[in-house]
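Exam revision sheet. Question 4 asks you to relate a sequence to its structure. Input first:
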Amino acid sequence: RSDRVQFLYGDVRCVACDGHLLANHFPPHGRLGNHPSEIGDASATDGNGKQVIICKKKQKGWLGRSSLFFEKEYQTAHMTALHLDAPVPELSTSPNLTDAQRKQLFLYMLHAREFDNAMLKLYRQGRAFGGVYSQLGNEATSVGTAFALNTTKDVLFPMHRNVGSHFVFGAEIKQLMLNFLAREGSQMRGTDGTGHYADPALRIYGNISHLSAMIPVASGFALASKMRGESCVALTYIGDGGCNVGEFHEAMNFASVQKIPMIVVIENNQYAYSTPSNLEYACEKLSDRALGYGCFGETVDGTDIELVYDTTLNYVQKARNGEGPALIETVTMRMRGHAEHDDFSYVPKEQLDYWAKRDPVERYEKRIIERGIMSAEEIAAFRSDLATRMFAAIDATLERPYPAPEEGYKLVFVE
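Answer key, structure tokens:
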């Protein structure tokens, strides 16, 4: 919208059309105006030579979010902070894991990766129900954090990009497919797809679309457990965008004051939808906010699974000992769009290349082979078996009907 562009860029003038105000190209109702430049190449400059560009969400379609317009200096700063030429660091080695447990971690990550790949294909075939939110690049965080819990005592409050944690807590491919494809037998009775479900038998309490809304619920669950004298820790997740929502702050403050045994993982995957992190918050690290709440806080490499595990285990033990909650920021990258309808063309290729070199599954696979935990042949055989089970689950799910429409009325009103 013209008012939004004017707010963002003030009197920035467009080079391509003899110095007219950039804002003049945008009518008040959100449709992009005409511009003589090539799509995606229109540029503007102010009196100091500062340049802005119109990104490839283009002159076609809706402007949508203001962040579809990037100042070059913002985008460059966002990538420079990554030190794009930095070498890939060595993975950590945990003193708290056996090789048998390392194998479990790796296989859980493979489950998460292949489930994601299956859902991406189903979405393109028109068979997925609702949005598909990929966790590609986030497997180490999802699996490593959940693995630090006791699955018979603790509780999991996952978010959209935490399929790996579901597998750690015992979720099966068949049931997940029923849930995600919204067929008869799904735990949401077909009223929703994605991760919006709960499985109390597995101590999994699913997320809802309202970001941060489940953090107060997780806090309340852990508080009730504490009052009953149980040794239960609640683990929940939020993104770098969602942690700016009011409920996040309220729940963290309450949990800190009450010394509630809760771990909140901020999955900093660089973008809140299309807004880069340097336009989301001003603090250096999101874990710095822990100082204000009076709880533990730490930032770690979210692609290093043994580091993620050790860090989470440390704070789980502190929480179980009555020392209160912790805020863990895992720095990683969302390697797909916000959801599969989003082509993520706003992400610079250099940034994706940087994180592709740090792929958590591929790097840990090398570690597994180097330590002699599994051979390349054994991994290939497991992948083949996993694919067979995935296809069988998909076929069985697609043979099922959608639930009866009347299911949509259930559990809405008190009867």
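Marking note for examiners. The first helix runs from residue 2 to 9.
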